[in-house]
Amino acid sequence: MRREQTINGIRLSYEWLPCPGSTRTIVLLHGFLSSSFSFRKLIPLLRGHFSVLTIDWPPFGYTERPRYYTYSYENTAKTLASFIQQMISEPVTLTGHSMGGQLVLQILKHSPSLADQAILLCASGYIPRAKGRLIAASYLPFADFFVKRWLEKSGVEGNLRRVVFDQAMIDEEMIQGYSHPFETRAIFKGLARFLRHREDDLTSEELQKLQTPCLLIWGEHDRIVPLSVGRRLAADLPNSRIKIIKKAGHLLPEEKPEETARLMKQFISQS
């Protein structure tokens, strides 16, 4: 059951799934244009061994999208860190998919003691801030309308075809699940502010200072964040290793939940 809690001026939507007897919590952060829905196949494979906390980070999913919130990586990372610290006292494994992986890295930078492990699933990296003209356009009165038009060019099904390797797995449940958060105008207003506030991804120099043990899991055929990015991140992160899943694209929690869960559990136990 989803719950809400207000922190740092924003109402976060989350799901807390405690595992009796477990001494570790896995925190799951979804990717860009997604929500905690993307972990629905992975969660049942983890919660018998660990407690699981999923969070819809702003401006996505069912989390509030206030106009006064600063949608920067730094502010969002600090918001999530404060929330996690309030919720959990046991050891934490931060796990992020795609842009959620970049948020994990931001949390490790700003709150290094929060987690003793991190898992990056096809994490985004080395993406610069939006160009000045796009940031300026985000201030236009109808910026949200243009964001909506841009997303509608390919549609939810078209975007899903880009992120999965096996096109046959796309069904009505997936399309509806990924479409639902985009049924209100508020998401497009939030995306315009996110475009305005988002900073550069962490640099190589910043990544090299992160000491938290990290497991990187990548899809062999990822077209959104290519494997070359994963190898570069693995080279920059001083205490990391990378595992590659064959016949998989970008959406690992959907495409290969069993293999992803196996690698996660193996890393956690060995660390």
From TrEMBL:
Q: Which InterPro entries match?
A: AB_hydrolase_1, AB_hydrolase_fold
Q: Where is the AB hydrolase-1 domain?
A: 26-262
For this UniProt record, the keywords arranged alphabetically read as follows: Hydrolase
List, in alphabetical order, the Gene Ontology terms for molecular function in this entry.
hydrolase activity
* Species: Bacillus thermotolerans (Quasibacillus thermotolerans)
> What top-level branch of life does the organism fall under?
Bacteria
Read off the Pfam families from this record. Answer: Abhydrolase_6 (PF12697)
- Mind telling me what this protein is named? Hydrolase, alpha/beta fold family
Indicate whether Secreted appears among the record's keywords: no
